[in-house]
Amino acid sequence: MDKKISSAVIKRLPRYYRYLSELLDQEIDRISSQELSKQMNVTASQIRQDLNNFGGFGQQGYGYNVEILKGEIGKILGLDRQYQVIILGAGNLGQALANYVGFERRGFIVSAIFDIDKKKIGQPVGNLKVYDMAELPQYVEENSVDIAALTLPKAKAPEVAKELDKMGVHAFWNFAATDLDLPSEAVVENVHLAESLMRLSYNIANPVKK
Amino acid sequence: MDKKISSAVIKRLPRYYRYLSELLDQEIDRISSQELSKQMNVTASQIRQDLNNFGGFGQQGYGYNVEILKGEIGKILGLDRQYQVIILGAGNLGQALANYVGFERRGFIVSAIFDIDKKKIGQPVGNLKVYDMAELPQYVEENSVDIAALTLPKAKAPEVAKELDKMGVHAFWNFAATDLDLPSEAVVENVHLAESLMRLSYNIANPVKK
Fold it and tell me: Fewest beta carbons within 10 Å, which of A15, A194, A207, B108?
């Protein structure tokens, strides 16, 4: 697949991937654009346009082969490999991420969780035990780490991210309510929950007239 | 404020609001567009364009009055009132949301948390106790509920959302890995963590050449 896919289509791919995964779970192995359109609440022509980027998987009178299409989209999303994830912060949110089996199913393996709180260090979280944050440099040196999930307080997160970047970890899933200030090629995906809540209150305060 | 503000600007408001809040916390009461530009990593002309929507708070040689500007943006975001929030699901994620003091500070008051798990019911979560999900209809009848945060399994979330909608709760903060299928005027803000993680893996798999 060498064809360039537009960033608007890329943005929609995770949602397609989710729906295709659900169809496979239900043992549905092919689906028409009309049916997918109904389920996803997107027009059928949008679906055909988007999925045409992936070659001839949609056939007249047959529909899409769910497994092949999911595989192709997965490759583009980088889901055809595994990622070793460490979690910084063993609070409720860090524990929620560590325990969410759906991530592992998609190839995101949580291999360690760290905290500075003596009461948490050594305690079990799922199949893991909480490491002392002081062991982080040694852990990163001895283990492959692809992604660091940051569930630290916002005052700590940028500094820990910078240290990790220096240690060679360049991808961050950032839950701290602050932006990371990282050099160069680091990849950051922010989950700013407070901003999400503000979008909700905006939509409550400004209802769309229908 | 009767002027229509574009949806592109609206989307950026939560981030402005967050930065302005941080400035106030640091007791900075005025700031130039240049300085804000440096901190937010947005061009100064973009900032001037965006903030001009809010009238004459930016003055040549003075900059923006942080508190007034924050107040104006807060009003548009619906943050000039309180919201009563209930949480459905007292797992790690539900508990993380219940314990996050930042939400309360912005006017989102978590007033109750519900679960079906007998082991969780009655247990403390922050200042609250976990209610039995069976008490939900009565609770909603007797208390004002503005927002329901759904941290339920995806198999349960759509059904519970529909029930809540019928009970008169029309705003949902949805963490379940599924779309809600709600009638008409319901307001839904989705936080699809698995999709967020896929955007991260996409950016790892497809590095931007610099």
Answer: A207
Confidence (pTM): 0.91
Tokens 């949805």 sit at which residue?
B174
Distance CA B47, CA B43 (A): 6
Dihedral Cα B49, B51, B55, B56, nearest 10 deg: -90
| Residues of chain B with C-beta less than 8 angstroms from the C-beta of A16 | none
Its ipTM equals 0.91
Of B116, B144, B149, the closest CA to residue B130 belongs to B116
Report strand pairing: B147-150 vs B171-174. parallel
Rounded to an integer, what distance in angstroms lies between the CA atom of residue B22 and that of residue B16? 10
**Interchain pair A189, B196: CB under 8 A:** yes
pLDDT of B51 over the 90 cut: no
A chain contacts of residue B179, beta-carbon cutoff 8 Å: 40-41
Instruction: Provide φ and ψ at A83, rounded to 5°.
Output: -125, 130
- Tokens representing residue A176 in the block: 């701290």
- Rounded Cα–Cα distance for residues A121 and A187 (Å): 28
